[in-house]
Design goal:
18 strands, 8 helices, single chain, SH3 type barrels, 3 domains, Elongation Factor Tu (Ef-tu), domain 3
């Protein structure tokens, strides 16, 4: 009998995944990861890791599977949280959930599972895996989850073929209501428990409060850039120009308010600016951490929110290495730059300096540090960190 170790988070998805694995005849072992224990930065209404563990224990007892715990908080702080601090300090917008999957769930966690004798490692992600022989080589395809409202393949966009080869995603073919129904029918304690929100394993946080563990508050100017600014810009179809973020100066607009630190803000952010009486809402369109200036634009159709292309220098990752584009190659893909964003038509163009993604329609809120992921239909092909 093949042995599967499943990450038990104390949520309904991993609970049902464990139940399904047992129904399929696997020897199932639960493993709970403690990755964060600092409750001082989480919002008080959210569950602590102790609550998560309690639910994981109740479900494991109900399913009659053993549950082990492992403390990976040191790894998580060094590989995920420190990376977050570093990126925000540079004025970039990291995605800790993508890093958590690459660095923790499918790296250190897999090592722990192998120590328990696992043949496979399972999670409660809404995505699918398909293994095929292609040109004499075993290829593991990572596919979007069957539920379009819950597809989590984007969070796995940095996984390697080796990592995917060990992975099982038992609920990938199900819709969320079906998962809830199974949990209810099996009388699992997590059946009505709310889904976790916020940063992976940390929970829902007030981001500035979280970042102030390492980054100091530093008051500065909020500068509004008028739409007329773009009327005077030279237009160019060069890839290097259309993929470059706008570079503003303080005197390109007018000072309208004060912020508490440019590195606490992200491109496209609306809440937390504390600017009222403007008629239309204000959005962050650029951040200058060196000058400590936050630039904003008025209205959700402000030109500063949109860009036709993006650039990825040397941080590309191909989930399907056999489909990696060569220099000067171009191919059309479906692309997303954030979780839950509908897939967008785009062309990948590989140049000696890196990879460009040119979209059919200008994209809103492209931010350095985010991951762009590209798909062929519902298969995740690769990803990269936006410059």
């Amino acid at each position: 009998m093949e042995k599967v170790v499943i990450g038990m988070s104390g949520g309904v998805d991993s609970s049902v995944a464990a139940y399904l694995l047992k129904q399929q005849g696997y020897e199932v072992i639960g493993l709970f990861m403690k990755n964060w224990d600092d409750a001082s930065v989480t919002l008080t209404s959210n569950c602590t890791w102790e609550d998560d563990l309690l639910f994981a224990e109740m479900v494991s007892k109900k399913l009659d599977i053993p549950l082990h715990t492992v403390d990976l908080s040191d790894y998580y702080r060094k590989r995920v949280v420190e990376y977050m601090f570093s990126e925000y300090e540079r004025g970039r917008t990291p995605n800790p959930d993508v890093l958590c999957n690459r660095e923790i769930k499918f790296d250190v966690f897999i090592d722990e599972c192998i120590n328990l004798g696992a043949d496979y490692v399972a999670t409660g992600h809404y995505c699918r895996k398909e293994t095929k022989e292609i040109n004499g080589e075993t290829i593991h395809r990572l596919l979007a989850g069957a539920d379009p409202n819950k597809d989590q393949s984007y969070f796995l966009c940095q996984l390697s073929q080796k990592q995917i080869s060990k992975a099982l995603f038992p609920i990938g073919e199900l819709l969320k209501p079906e998962v809830r129904k199974i949990a209810d029918e099996q009388d699992l304690a997590t059946a009505t428990r709310k889904d976790s929100q916020g940063i992976c394993f940390v929970g829902k946080v007030d981001l500035p409060t979280f970042l102030q563990q390492k980054l100091k508050a530093n008051k500065g100017d909020i500068v509004e850039i008028p739409e007329s600014y773009y009327d005077n810009l030279d237009t160019s179809d060069e890839l290097s120009d259309i993929s470059r973020a706008y570079q503003y100066k303080r005197d390109d607009g007018k000072i309208i308010a004060e912020h508490r630190g440019a590195h606490f803000y992200t491109i496209g952010q609306r809440k937390g600016l504390n600017i009222g009486g403007t008629g239309k809402p204000m959005y962050v369109i650029a951040i200058d951490v060196n000058e400590n200036i936050v630039y904003v634009g008025r209205g959700d159709d402000h030109p500063g929110l949109y860009r036709k292309a993006l650039f990825i220098s040397n941080e590309t990752h191909w989930v399907r290495p056999d489909l990696k584009l060569k220099t000067e190659e171009t191919k059309d893909f479906l692309v997303r730059i954030r979780y839950r964003q509908p897939l967008q038509q785009g062309s990948l163009i590989v140049k000696p300096e890196g990879l460009y993604v040119v979209f059919e329609k200008p994209q809103r809120g492209i931010a350095a540090g985010q991951f762009a992921a590209w798909y062929d239909n519902d298969e995740l092909i690769g990803s990269g960190v936006i410059n």
